[in-house]
From TrEMBL:
SUPFAM superfamilies: TPR-like. This is BRO1 domain-containing protein. It comes from Seminavis robusta.
C-alpha cells in the first residue's frame, strides 16, 4: 500500500484520518498474510506490528481500546474475513490451526461507530496473525524464544476475544469469534505441550492444564450448540481436532500435583 501521498498531523482525528488508518491496517494485515503463506514469517512480523499500531491509534483517537469488550453492540458491520493456509506449522502429535486471517477494511461511513463495533475484532485478528508468524518462525528454526513470543501474543489475543465470545451470541461474526478463540486456545496448548515444563513452581503447569480444560469445554460447547452456530464441514473437522488435542494434553501432560 502506497501511503506517500497522504499526510496527517498527529492531532488530526478526523473521520478521513480514521478511515485511512482502518484501511491501512487491513492492507498491512493482508500483506502480512501473503508473506506468511509464502513461508516468510520474518517479513510478515513487521507488517502485522504496523497494522496493530494503526489500530491502536484508531482506538486511542476514539477513546476505545483494543482489549475492551464490545458487549451490547450490534456487529452486523463486522469485517468480512478470509482464511489462508500457511506452511511450516505441522506437528506429529498436536494439530496446529495454521490458517492466517485476512479481513476487509470496515465499510461504515462513520469510523467512530465502526471502531466501537469492529476494531476489537480486527485487533484480535492482527494479534492472532502476529502469534502465527512467531509460531511459524519457531517451528522453522526450532528456537524456543520464537515460540514463547507466539505464546504471549496468543494470550493477548485470547484476552481481547474473551468477553466478545461469551456475550455476543447474536452477532453475525459469532461463529468467526468462536473459531478464532478455539484456534487461539488450541495453538497455546500446542506450544505449552512442546515447551519444557518449568520446575520452579506448579503455577505455570496448573495454568497450562487450565488452558486444555478451557479448550475441551469450549470445543464441546461449539460442537453441541447447533442453534447458534453454523460451521462448515471443514470447520467442524477442525473443532474435532481441537477436542482430540485437549485429550492428548490432559492425558500426556497432566497438571503437577499440588504441594503440601
Amino acid at each position: 500500500m502506497d501511503c506517500s501521498s497522504r499526510s496527517y498531523s498527529s492531532s488530526d482525528n478526523s473521520s478521513e484520518r480514521l478511515s485511512f488508518l482502518l484501511e491501512q491496517a487491513a492492507g498491512l494485515n493482508e500483506d502480512g498474510v501473503y508473506e506468511l503463506s509464502s513461508g516468510k514469517p520474518q517479513e510478515a512480523i513487521p507488517l502485522f506490528q504496523e497494522a496493530w499500531e494503526s489500530l491502536m491509534e484508531v482506538a486511542g483517537a476514539t477513546g476505545s481500546t483494543c482489549t475492551s469488550s464490545i458487549v451490547g453492540t450490534d456487529c452486523s458491520t463486522a469485517a468480512t474475513t478470509t482464511r489462508i493456509q500457511i506452511p511450516h506449522l505441522e506437528d506429529d502429535v498436536f494439530y496446529i490451526y495454521s490458517c492466517a486471517v485476512a479481513y476487509s477494511a470496515s465499510t461504515s461511513t462513520t469510523p467512530v461507530n465502526t471502531t466501537s463495533k469492529d476494531v476489537q475484532f480486527e485487533c484480535a485478528i492482527v494479534l492472532f496473525n502476529l502469534a502465527l508468524a512467531f509460531h511459524q518462525q519457531g517451528k522453522k528454526t526450532k528456537k524456543e524464544g520464537f515460540l514463547r513470543r507466539a505464546l504471549q501474543y496468543y494470550q493477548q489475543c485470547q484476552q481481547s476475544l474473551q468477553q466478545v465470545l461469551t456475550t455476543n451470541t447474536t452477532c453475525t461474526a459469532h461463529d468467526e469469534l468462536i473459531l478464532l478463540t478455539l484456534a487461539v486456545m488450541n495453538n497455546q496448548a500446542s506450544i505449552e505441550y512442546e515447551l519444557p515444563i518449568p520446575t520452579t513452581t506448579n503455577t505455570t503447569s496448573a495454568a497450562n492444564n487450565d488452558n486444555s480444560e478451557k479448550l475441551w469445554h469450549y470445543s464441546i460447547h461449539a460442537i453441541l450448540d447447533e442453534e447458534t452456530t453454523n460451521f462448515s464441514m471443514v470447520e467442524q473437522s477442525q473443532i474435532h481436532e481441537f477436542v482430540q488435542n485437549a485429550m492428548v494434553f490432559r492425558l500426556q501432560r497432566p497438571c503437577a500435583a499440588p504441594t503440601a
